[in-house]
Design brief:
The protein is elongated, with a radius of gyration of 34 Å. It is mainly beta. The strands form six sheets. It has a six-stranded antiparallel β-sheet with strand order 13-23-15-16-17-18. It is built from three helices and 23 strands.
Length: about 350
């Protein structure tokens, strides 16, 4: 019994002595998210400290040759502090190679290493050029390699639109419902307008929905409602088509000037293009609305699910509608200024026209 008490007494004294004399040096640690980066990526790391004193940590980014950035003061407010970079690595600023993060805090200095690799950032001239009209157009990339973060999407596989053709395997996820029937070659020099879901009639946004990559509008309530296209045009010759898959009485198809939905009433009162100034549309019964005036017949009968076409000649301000490939009023979109069978387009609204359809 005596020996046990003595042992216990000695241990207690030893433990008490350790507790009363304990002292830990402050510590600062850099925790790297990763140690290799490529161009266009952002540097991300954490600073872990043992004490929060209100002092700032001072950070420098140093390259392998000894060159250093200006001091970057960072407030230390937690024991573990994420330090995200505001800017990505750029080729003109950061050459490839070895770099260090130097941190000073509480009189302690510590460093962590990372490397900038790859060098596959390309100049704009590798992918495009100015044409004779001083307009930027794309060109085929002829360089060697795409880098570890690069990709080449040709969008030529209807069953896998996000397939990467670079060999790096960086396939992109594709949206649902984009079937082969909804796909078309679309580039800066071969561009297609789709329906714009961001522009809607203010008082009736629930009358229709736009889906399937902007190729489909579905009416969800009674009353007129229209969608407009994503591309406005003011010169040249243009053609577009639409097909209705139901037999609603209010179906319409045509064009509106930009003034119709920036200063007019088309997108406030829920009326169709052509029922006010700066719009032209053909209705289900074959009649035409032109700048607020109704013309009962346009030389072809009413339509149901046939394909409708619209040819727009903005060099001569003429418009032509077709049904199943036949132009109404014996129209000829190639007739130029003569405008055989054409509907005149007003220029009073400014002359920037958009596709419009609805029902």
């Amino acid at each position: 019994m005596i020996s046990k008490k003595v042992i216990f007494f000695i241990l207690l004294i030893g433990s008490t002595g350790v507790l009363t004399s304990a002292y830990a040096e402050p510590s600062v640690t850099i925790i790297m998210e990763k140690t290799t980066y490529t161009y266009c990526e952002k540097l991300v790391y954490l600073i872990e400290v043992s004490e929060i004193t209100g002092d700032l940590a001072i950070i420098h980014i140093r390259d392998g040759a000894g060159g250093s950035s200006s001091a970057i003061p960072i407030p230390i407010e937690k024991l573990l502090n994420p330090i995200p970079s505001l800017h990505a690595f750029e080729k003109d600023i950061f050459p490839l190679g070895q770099y260090f993060i130097d941190v000073q805090y509480l009189g302690i200095e510590t460093s962590a290493e990372f490397n900038l690799i790859d060098g596959a950032q390309k100049a704009a001239s590798d992918f495009g050029k100015f044409d004779n009209n001083n307009e930027w157009i794309p060109k085929a990339y002829t360089g060697s390699g795409y880098g570890t973060q690069g990709f080449h999407y040709k969008f030529d596989n209807a069953s896998d639109l996000g397939e990467d053709s670079s060999g790096e395997g960086h396939n992109a996820n594709q949206k649902n419902n984009i079937t082969a029937a909804d796909q078309a070659t679309d580039t800066p020099t071969n561009n297609f307008s789709t329906l714009n879901p961001l522009i809607e009639q203010a008082s009736i946004p629930a009358r229709y929905t736009v889906s399937e990559g902007g190729t489909k509008q579905i009416s969800t309530a009674d009353g007129y409602g229209c969608s407009v296209g994503t591309i406005g045009v003011s010169k040249g010759k243009w053609y577009f088509e639409a097909q209705f898959n139901s037999d609603g009485s209010g179906k319409h198809f045509g064009v509106i000037d930009e003034a119709s939905f920036t200063t007019g009433t088309a997108f406030v009162d829920g009326i169709s293009p052509g029922q006010q100034a700066y719009g032209v549309s053909i209705f289900k019964n074959g009649g035409i609305n032109i700048d607020g005036s109704y013309v009962p017949s346009y030389s072809f009968s009413s339509f149901t699910t046939e394909t409708l076409g619209c040819a727009m000649d903005l060099d001569n301000n003429k418009l032509y509608f077709s049904k199943s490939g036949t132009y109404g009023n014996s129209g000829d979109p190639t007739s130029g200024a003569t405008g055989t069978g054409a509907i005149p387009l007003s220029t009073a609204g400014g002359g920037t026209w958009f596709i419009s359809k609805g029902g």
